Fold this protein.
Amino acid sequence: MQTKRTIFRNRWLPYALLAPQLAITIIFFLWPAAQAVRQSFLRQDAFGLKTSFVGLENYLALLKDPSYLQSFQVTAVFAVSVAALSMGLSLALAVAVDRVLRANQLYTTMLVWPYAVAPVAAGVLWWFMFNPSIGILSYALRQMGYDWNHNLDGTDAMILVVVAAAWKQISYNFLFFVAGLQSIPQSLREAAAIDGAGPAKRFFTVIFPLLSPTTFFLLVINVTYTMFDTFGVIDAATEGGPSQATNILVYKVYRDGFVGLNLGSSAAQSVVLMLIVMALTFVQFRWIERRVQY
Amino acid sequence: MVENRPYLNILAHVVLILGVAVVAFPVYLAFIASTHSPRDFVSGVMPLLPGDAMIETYRTMFTRGVSTAGAPPLSQMMFNSLVMALTIAVGKIAISILSAFAIVYFRFPFRATAFWMIFVTLMLPVEVRIVPTFEVVANLGLLNSYAGLSIPLIASATATFLFRQFFLTIPEELVEAARIDGAGPMRFFRDMLLPLSRTNMAALFVILFIFGWNQYLWPLLVTTDESYYTVVMGIKRLSDVADSEPQWNYVMATVILAMLPPILVVVGMQKLFVKGLVEQEK
C-alpha cells in the first residue's frame, strides 16, 4: 500500500489518529455484522427465552420460503427497471445538454436538484400523483380508460415505485453521463463526421461505445442504489404491498426483523444481503481501475 | 459542434425542457397542494393552480404540527434534522481526515489491517445489519438522543479514501520542507494539510449534509420520543393515516419544507456538489 517517501515517526500518534474511526467502525459496523452472522445460525423461541444453535436451518428455510424467493425476483425486476428507465432518460438529457451551446449551465441546475430529495419524499410525491382518489396521473389514466390502483394491483404498485426511484436517480446519472460525454475527444466526432457519419450514426458507432465505461459504472451504482437506498421509497409509496408485490429484500429484512420479530430469519437475510453488497463492491472496484484510463 | 443542424438543436432544447418539466412537476404539484385548504381536495380533482391557504398551512405546520398524527411542529423536527445532518457531516469529515493522515504519513504495525477494516464498512450499509446495530445502540443507552441518531452513521470509508487519494497527490517536498523547518506531524497537519484540503472538505460537506439530512430508516429505528423525530420521518408519519385520506395540504407542506434545505445546498453550491459527487466515486 502506498505511503509517502518522507514520513513521520511516532509510536503512538497514528493509533490515536485512527482511534475514533476504528472505534465507530468496530462498535457500529463490525460487531453488529458479526452478530448478524452469529444470529443467523441460531433460533430464538417466541418469547426470546431460549436460544438454540440450528446450523444452516435458517438459510435452508429461506431457500424454501416462496415469499423470500419472490422478494428476490421483485428486487431484480425493480433494480433492472429503475436502472434502465433512469439511465435511459439521463442519457437522452445528457446528450441534449452536450449539444446545447448556451444555457447548459441553467439546464444542469434545473436537473440536478432531485439528488437532494429524500427517498421518502420521492415516494410520497409519486404516491400522491398516482393516488387513486385524488392523484392527477391516476385521473389522467382513468380518462384514458385504465383503472389505476396501486393498492390492489401489483403491477401498478411496481410501476409506482420504479418511477419514484428512477426520478430521484436521474440527476446522478445525468451528471456522470455529461462528464463522460465531455471526456470524449472532439477530434473523434469530427473524424467520424468527415467520413460522412450523421449525428445518429456517430452516436451509436462512436459516442455510445466510448461511453460504455461510464454506462457500466452507472449500472452498478444504480443497482446498488435500488437495492439498498430505496427503503424510503418503498415504505412511503407501497409498504411492500399489495401482497408482497414490491417487497424488496431490504424491506423484507426490516419487516421480518422489526415488525415480525423473526430474528433468526432476518439475520440470515442480512447475511445474504452482505454477500450481495460485497459482490457489487468488488465489481465496482475492479472496474474503477480501468475507468481511470480514458 | 461538428456541424450546424438547426433542427437537432431545437430537438435538444425540446428534450431538455421536457426533462426539466417532468423532473419538476411532482414538486410543483406538492407545492400547489400545500397552498390549498383541506376542502379543496374533497371534489376528487386535484387543483393545478395555487390556492389561498398557503400562509395558514405553513404557519400551522411550523408552529403546532399535527398532534393527532403524532407529528410535532416542523420547526422542531427541522432543528433535529439539522443537528443530525451537521453532526454526521462534520463528524465524518473530522474522523476521516485524521485516519487518512495516519494511513498516508505514518508507517506502523497493523496499518494495512486498519485500512481494510475501514474499507469493509463500504460493504455494510445500515440496511443489512439493522437488528444487531439497533441492539448495540440500545445497549449503549443511545436511543432517543442526538448521539444515537448520528454517531453510528459517522464511520465512512469513502471520505477516508477521498482524503487518502488527495494526500497522495501532495508533493513530497512539502513534508520534507516542513520537517526541515522542525514542524512535528500535528503542526504539519494543521498548517499544511488542513488548508490544502479545504475545497475537498467543502465538497464532501455538501454530499454528507444531504446524506445526513435524508436519513430515514435509522432515525425510524432509534427514536420513539417525538422530540427527536426528524422532518424526513415526519413526512411518513403524516401521510400514514389508517382508513382515511391524509391531510394532503399538511403532508405536502412537510414534504416541501423537508426538501428545501438540501435542495438549497445543492443549488447554491453546485460546483462543490458536482466535485464532491464525482470524486467520491473515484
About this structure: The domain at 66-291 of chain A is CATH 1.10.3720.10 (MetI-like fold). Chain A touches chain B through 104 residues (CB under 8 Å). Chain A has a mean pLDDT of 86. Residues 66-99 of chain A form the longest helix (34 residues).
